[in-house]
Amino acid sequence: MRRSTPWPGLHAIAAVALLALACPPAPKPAANSGLDRVPAVAAAAPAAGPAAEQRRPYFLRDRSPTSNRRIVSMAPSVTEILFALGAGDRVVGVTRFCDFPAAAAGLPKIGGFLDPSLEAIAGLRPDLIIAVPNGSNRPLVERLADLGLSLLLVYDYELADLDRAIPAIGAAIGRSDAAAALLERMHGDAAAIRAAVAGRDRPRVLFLYGRKPLVAAGPGSYADALIEIAGGRNALGAAYPRYATIPLETVAALAPDVVIDAYAAGHGAASEPLDLGRLADLPAVRNHRVYALSDNAALRPGPRVGADARIVAALLHPGIEL
Prior knowledge:
- This protein is 32% helix and 12% strand.
- It has 12 helices and 11 strands.
- The strands form 2 sheets. Strands 6, 7, 8, 9, 10 and 11 form a 6-stranded mixed beta sheet that branches. A 5-stranded mixed beta sheet has the order 1-5-4-2-3, sandwiched between helices.
- α5 links the parallel β4 (128-131) and β5.
- α7 packs parallel to α12.
């Protein structure tokens, strides 16, 4: 996969504002982790969060991979990666949003992505906790480290972050070869879809995560990466943040050819279609190209990027063979 293309997602739409303001916890010294340490991000960090070069996996306390037999995942993307690496049998706790694969849904819950419980996590006696830093979980992450628990922090803000996160998780659990194979498969899936849509017209796509207000995927979001891989152009250009709140007037001005509504997938509201009745002249409305997603996979980055991009490509290019 081309590193110039952002790979990245939301675990719940409520995370949008907090992730936009995310600031990772300051790493504490740990010996022999084999992973990068990054400096604390200044309080005046930009609203988009730490820059890509700062989003390196790091440990707050670490131990030998052979001792990491009981793992707690604090993010759905991390849970999917652990299972994809063949370590699902070591996962003893997940968030309430961790619903894939099916085996993950039945594991003990530690709370949500934004409101995990210290007591629930500590009670599971984990050898390793893997978290995605955000503005909400920073105090809890630091308290867990103060308790002497081993923590690995990885980023999934953009799809490209997985090129660092997956090898780091693999190294932490003694599955480096599996991590390399997983990344190779993900890159290969994306390359195959790019090849299939090459030379086709690239429709302007508005990808919505929220409805009231309208929250759209901007540059650097997971949906932005899916749109690019699938042969489209994000209707939100470089001037927009990763997740942008927009009024209907802006939607009209953007004039997207395709609207993809992911709100239903994240909120169980598939029976409530998106109402764009006031925008009857919108190209997407006029040409009946407003689509609702039923699978929340498109809300999170991870091993299913190929499947997610195929879904989007089928919407952008009806009849294409993938």
